[in-house]
## 1
Amino acid sequence: MNQSIFLIVNDIEKQVSIREADTLLFVLRERLGLFGAKAGCENGDCGSCTILVDDRPYNACHMLAIEAEGKRITTIEGLQQSPFQEKFIKNWAIQCGFCTPGFILNCHALLEQYPNADEATILEALDSNICRCTGYEEIKQTVQEVIQWKRASGDS
Ligand code: FES
Ligand code: FES
């Protein structure tokens, strides 16, 4: 049976009709037309569906839409004022791009929590996302570059 809930997605409140078992990933993509979060494994393993819930990264395939009611959801479409999009492109940290929205949101959340993350912390955070094109080194370097950039611009 369908029910109506309110989700706060990218700072906009949306009313959406869902079934109890609908995942947040399904609702974002198929009900709200936000295709940035990708359906990879749909089993919590690959991180391609990463979104932020109250600023922390979550796998949208592993969360029911109903669990997200009243929480702030950020998808790649709503990520504003983050240097990561530009730096990923500049550093060739993107190849096919399928995994990229999840990596960017994860990296962004990492530096919000640990602005001076060391290499071990960065690698541990990146562990939750899989890139089949194997661009991990460039992604790690991009995180380190953003840390330096934020320090230089007085943003951390
Ligand atoms: S699609 Fe969600 S973790 Fe892989
Ligand atoms: S860039 Fe292709 S899967 Fe990561």
Note: The first strand starts at residue 2 and ends at 9.
## 2
Amino acid sequence: MSFLEMLDVMNEELVAKGEEPIAFDHDCREGICGSCGFMINGVAHGPERGTTVCQLHMRHFKDGAELYLEPWRAKAFPVVKDLVVDRGAFDRIVAAGGFVSVATGSAPDGNAVPVPKKNADLAMDAAACIGCGACVAACPNAAAALFTGAKIAHLGLLPQGQPERYDRALNMVGQVKTEGFGSCTNIGECEAVCPKEIKLEVIARMNRDYLRASWTQRGDRFRDDGA
Ligand code: SF4
Ligand code: FES
């Protein structure tokens, strides 16, 4: 039985007894939508690495084990009910710049824009982020750096993302501050719990793009090493 199926069974029992079921978020139940997620015994998404709560199975727990479930805890993710939090802050960060503006028209030829293999692989790795929020919940600063870094990196590594690359970093990082997330101090808890195993490197890329954008805004010179 999966962890969410266990909650389904528990909720059926609660409803049969006339009690309130436990509220939790879910949708795809196959690790791709990012809806599910809460703390299990103090660990975001539970004890298995690279696994969302919906992909977690009860066989990973001992019979009769006592489990403590808590919602994500971060000021920017207000608790809605039980295990459900409002992650609208992530949507607003993406709306601030997590896109590529393109002139509409027919679809371009697949090979019209060559992308180096290394960059394509890194962009795909960053694009694996499902926006679950575990990185924020695990961070002692409640920083959204891994999420935002992933969104900035997956576009910034591709040719199509270059025209808006530095404005994107400025706007998205600005929105992170507006939403009330904390600052990253390189603790690395986010990487440890991320179900998609997004690497801390995306935070370095975000910081570099943000610094370059803000120094350029101030008229300072920025040494570009071509990375
Ligand atoms: S970086 Fe990882 S933990 Fe954070 S939102 Fe994306 S998938 Fe979830
Ligand atoms: S329900 Fe979609 S990732 Fe868990």
Note: The helical segments are 3-16, 88-95, 117-127, 134-138, 145-156, 165-179, 189-193, 201-218.
